[in-house]
Structure formats: C-alpha cells, structure tokens
Request: fold
Amino acid sequence: MNKKLHIKKGDTVYVNAGEDRGKSGKVLEVLTEKNRAIVEGMNMVSKHTKPNAKSPQGGIIKQEAGIHTSNLQVVDPVKGGPTRIGRRMNDKGKLVRYAKKSGEEIK
Reply:
C-alpha cells in the first residue's frame, strides 16, 4: 500500500531534528514503505565496501542515509522557511500541495 507523504523527490526540505538540525537540502529519494527520505548531504554514514567494478580499491565510503519524514519540513517557496503542507484543488480541478505559511502552490 502506497502512503501519501508530505514530501516528494526534488523538494527542498528543512531538517527539524537530529545531527543535521537547522540545515536544508534537496530530497534525492523517498522511501515510502519505511517513511524515510534521503536528503543531499545530510545524515552521512560510513559504509564499508568490498572491491568491485565501481570502486576497485574498496574501503570506506561516505554516503547519505535515510531521515524519518517526521523530522523533515518542506521549505516555503516564497518566505523561505520551513512550512506545513496542505492539499487543495487548483483552478483546473487538480489536487495540489500548497504551503500553509504563504498559501503558495508547491511545484
């Protein structure tokens, strides 16, 4: 069952909690079944890798790990800060997301 989340791939989000609290970044991937999102440059972890075609040397690489969606807020396109998200019908009758802070539609 796919669950509707308030964030989508490509959104700019603000991190509310955790090590990266107060930072903003772009969503690279949304993992709906785990309620998590991977945000560019946030929640970096060290991953031990065996030698393979991509990294013939192997070793330890840094990569982004998932952040729970409850710790993320979409950044308002007008006011610039974190905002809550609502859904409403636009003039064409399509359901769209909008920022509750400014009322602006989120693309």
